[in-house]
Design goal:
Blueprint: E1 3-9, E2 12-17, E3 22-25, H1 40-62, E4 66-78, E5 86-98, H2 102-116, H3 118-123, E6 128-137
Parallel strand pairs: 5-6
Antiparallel strand pairs: 1-2, 2-3, 4-5
Helix pairs in contact: 1-2
Length: 138
């Protein structure tokens, strides 16, 4: 995997991945930015949530569960020091499907967290990561 980050101006950067996708990152005005893009640390939360969500949906689908939607809310707490690293991250999965059993969703979340999600396993070495979920009929 490769990525390239190009400085635009102020605190704005454009990141481009090896797969050809790009995203704008920027800082708040009090740090020289213009608030025109995602903060880099927010991207870490998005990466973790995306990786975990990918796993949960794939595990449920491979188990032939009827999943119609999955929304993952990710919240992180950072230490009040420099570097301002994450100390805690919580992922809450809202999984929608027909006849979905809580035990199946719980298993998928656990497998993602402990076996498949590279981002969670990597970050989990230094951050307290917790998970919760709810199953909605639909």
């Amino acid at each position: 995997m490769e990525a390239k980050i190009k400085w635009v101006d102020g605190r704005m950067f454009v990141g481009e991945t090896g797969s050809g996708h790009a995203i704008v990152m920027d800082g708040p005005p009090d740090h020289g930015g213009r608030n025109m893009g995602i903060r880099p640390m927010e991207m870490m939360l998005l990466g973790l949530g995306g990786c975990s969500s990918f796993d949960v949906v794939e595990i449920l689908q491979k188990g032939r569960h009827d999943v119609s939607d999955c929304t993952t809310e990710v919240s992180g707490e950072r230490v009040d020091a420099i570097p301002s690293v994450f100390s805690k991250i919580h992922l809450h999965f809202k999984v929608v499907g027909k006849g979905l059993k809580a035990s199946a969703v719980e298993r998928a979340v656990k497998l993602s967290a402990e076996k498949y999600c590279s981002a969670a396993i990597m970050l989990g070495k230094s951050v307290d990561i917790t998970h919760s979920f709810e199953v909605l009929e639909g």
